[in-house]
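Box 3.1 — From sequence to structure: Glycosyltransferase
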Amino acid sequence: MTRILFLINYAGNGGSEKYVDDLVRIFTARGEDCRLCYNVPGALSERLEASGVPTFRLKISRGSALSSARKLAEYCRENAVDVIHAQYPAENVVALLSLRHYPAPKVVFTNHLTLRAGRLWRMINRALTPRDHCAIAVCKEGREVLIQNGFAPEKVVVIPNGVEPGPEPVKDLSVRAELGVGEGEFMITTLARCVPEKGLGFLIDAMAKLHDMTDRPFRCVICGDGPLLPELKEKAAQPGIEDRVLFAGYRGDGGRVLSAADLYVNSSSSEAMSFGLLEAMRAALPLVVTALDTNRELAEDAPACGIAVPYGDAEGFARAVLRLMEDEALYCGYSANARRKVLEVYDLSKLAGDVFRAYQ
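Predicted structure (token representation):
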């Protein structure tokens, strides 16, 4: 049995929290002892505590790094922790500093970002990360970024995010009326927080262009909440598209939304590997995405299941959506390929096994 402590600052509802949730569930079922250490409570900490997973709250901030490292080391010593699996750079630093007080655990770091670090972070990484047992990048671009940010290339492995393939998808339109989607309307959707990097303002611009290109009725359903929600609602209220873009808020039943949709879009300006895209592919939805490296990898690498368009090209994005609205043969081919790619490349059970082997 391996005792694994997952370390994350915010235990909320995002993609990195889903990553932790999935690994805890799979590893626990395989007989491992999983625990959660977090700073800010949220849906993940509540869910794991309710399921009986031991949790430990720890302040994670620049000013508290040294004291937090000591407390983390005490916890690891008292509980014989074998692996600390840190989810972001700040968590990784605290974990590595804790080894000064209790060196037994292996520190494994997963990089959920594709952001280039500044000079200070590169210096910190060069000084501390040689003590990482392993650094996991969830995409090829993420590996390149980690190396640029000061990690040794031999420490970095690529293990993509994954989803459980589940049964063959079946269309279920029952949620459409609840969302405000009419019968016969082409339903476009995205699962995304209302934050700048998700590019939802750009998506609204693309939907305005699409409205000008076609008479076919459509609705774009945005599922997510966040600080930009009021601003985005105001933007979507512009004449001509005020009833074309719908805001559903955060949905705990994202699978139902996907089973009712016709097309999935990702409008991000920055993204590592989106769980929303993987879940859409599992539901056999074709994709229209921004041309970020990882988005292109998911949509356009063989077998292709979508179209990638440069971020900011609202007209090009709209034309890609329109193409899939009008070309039935292309739509059906992409739909089949999306599901096939999940089965062949992004099966969570296999990828979780790769993560566990990285601990060894």
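Summary of the box: The chain has two domains: 3-158, 176-345.
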